[in-house]
């Protein structure tokens, strides 16, 4: 895999992390303004990550995948993505004055966090399967 393709995609992911956080913040604010506070943590974590995966899939489709080895290398670049995002969202919830009116959302229980993580993991697995199904370019032998 051309090294520059990995670097370019890593740069894209760095920007995507910031965009995903901003989108999460906008979604939280929108839900609160519409009084949709029930399961606000679960809904917005999963929706934000699904959107990030969809956008990433579009970016990956633009790359010239020359062989199957490239796919695991691209997916490896996501290492820490979910963990960082979850830390951000939990900190956001625990320090939010607006969410303090909703104790289950302000300070999610371990059971609630586990429930969210199970969904996040299922969505990640679905994304990985989509990436694995992408076609690769045939190498031309001369």
Short description:
The chain contains six helices and no strands.
What is the secondary structure topology, with strand pairs?
Layout: H1 3-33, H2 40-62, H3 70-76, H4 81-95, H5 103-106, H6 110-133
Descriptive account of the structure:
The protein has 142 residues and is an all-alpha fold. It has one domain (3-31, 39-133). Helices cover 73% and strands 0% of the residues. The protein contains six helices and no strands. It has helices at residues 3-33, 40-62, 70-76, 81-95, 103-106, 110-133. Helix 1 (3-33) runs antiparallel to helix 2 (40-62), helix 1 runs parallel beside helix 4 (81-95) and helix 2 runs parallel beside helix 6 (110-133). The longest helix has 31 residues, at 3-33. It starts with a helix and ends in a 9-residue tail after the last helix. The model has no long low-confidence stretch (mean pLDDT 91).
């Amino acid at each position: 895999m051309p090294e520059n393709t990995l670097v370019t995609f890593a740069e894209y992911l760095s920007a995507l992390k910031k965009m995903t956080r901003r989108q999460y913040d906008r979604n939280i604010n929108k839900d609160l303004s519409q009084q949709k506070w029930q399961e606000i943590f679960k809904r917005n974590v999963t929706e934000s990550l699904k959107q990030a995966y969809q956008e990433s899939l579009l970016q990956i489709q633009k790359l010239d995948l020359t062989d199957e080895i490239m796919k695991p290398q691209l997916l490896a670049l996501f290492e820490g993505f979910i963990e960082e995002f979850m830390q951000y969202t939990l900190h956001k919830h625990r320090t939010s004055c607006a969410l303090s009116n909703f104790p289950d959302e302000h300070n999610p229980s371990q059971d609630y966090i586990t429930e969210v993580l199970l969904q996040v993991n299922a969505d990640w697995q679905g994304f990985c399967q989509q990436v694995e199904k992408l076609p690769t370019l045939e190498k031309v032998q001369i």
